[in-house]
Amino acid sequence: MKRTRTGVKICGITEEAGLDACIEYGADWIGFVFFERSPRYVSASRAAVLGKRVTNNIKKVGLFVNPDDTTLKQVLDQVELDILQVYTTPDRALQIQNQFGRPVWVSIPVAGKGDLPSQCPVQRILIEPKPPVDALHPGGNAQQLNWNLLQGWKPTYPWMLAGGLNPENVGQAVAITGVPAVDVSSGVESAPGIKNPRAIARFIHNARAPVIV
Ligand SMILES: O=C(O)c1ccccc1NCC(=O)[C@H](O)[C@H](O)COP(=O)(O)O
């Protein structure tokens, strides 16, 4: 069966070179991290500058951890974001989607099959590995999910796979899970917060190239 083109999000954009690689090699989404403890943090004013450089109809995703309304409003007043990606409860994610009038993606931490959601409260669900209890942040930890947990799981809503993906393993991850879209941060960096344009090119190519498993 012919697969549709895999959607690709490159998260944690902080500088022009990484952003330009996303545009050149055909990313669908880029992510700005508005979480101050992250090495990929960007201020709203910096994201606004980078955002103006975006072309090719690439969508800009703003990433927030347990955001309150004031924080969301302050950022949205300065940056044109197409999508809000949130690390919070499904109920709060839905409230944000209703209140701020933009599609919301909610991250669902998964440790076992029982964590896989049967419904999607918002526009899309991000399936990510449950972080260790001592993790400094809930995502962007280069931690890989056991993809075999997702075999046979066929959600009828939009979803995305994240966590520990890189140019070498993304083709296999797509082939095993059948996921329609993938998200990467650490796996295409030369240092935390600094994207590697060659790795971005390889990641996007390999996410869309057929792999037999
Ligand atoms: O990237 C961060 O520093 C970060 C901080 C707080 C919450 C989420 C964060 N990142 C999320 C992502 O970049 C991706 O959605 C995903 O977790 C992939 O990360 P990685 O394993 O580094 O590819």
TrEMBL record:
<dbReference type="InterPro" id="IPR013785">
    <property type="entry name" value="Aldolase_TIM"/>
</dbReference>
<comment type="pathway">
    <text>Amino-acid biosynthesis; L-tryptophan biosynthesis; L-tryptophan from chorismate: step 3/5.</text>
</comment>
<dbReference type="InterPro" id="IPR011060">
    <property type="entry name" value="RibuloseP-bd_barrel"/>
</dbReference>
<dbReference type="GO" id="GO:0004640">
    <property type="term" value="F:phosphoribosylanthranilate isomerase activity"/>
</dbReference>
<keyword id="KW-0413">Isomerase</keyword>
<dbReference type="Pfam" id="PF00697">
    <property type="entry name" value="PRAI"/>
</dbReference>
<comment type="similarity">
    <text>Belongs to the TrpF family.</text>
</comment>
<dbReference type="InterPro" id="IPR044643">
    <property type="entry name" value="TrpF_fam"/>
</dbReference>
<feature type="domain" description="N-(5'phosphoribosyl) anthranilate isomerase (PRAI)">
    <location>
        <begin position="8"/>
        <end position="205"/>
    </location>
</feature>
<keyword id="KW-0028">Amino-acid biosynthesis</keyword>
<dbReference type="GO" id="GO:0000162">
    <property type="term" value="P:L-tryptophan biosynthetic process"/>
</dbReference>
<keyword id="KW-0057">Aromatic amino acid biosynthesis</keyword>
<protein>
    <recommendedName>
        <fullName>N-(5'-phosphoribosyl)anthranilate isomerase</fullName>
        <ecNumber>5.3.1.24</ecNumber>
    </recommendedName>
</protein>
<keyword id="KW-0822">Tryptophan biosynthesis</keyword>
<dbReference type="InterPro" id="IPR001240">
    <property type="entry name" value="PRAI_dom"/>
</dbReference>
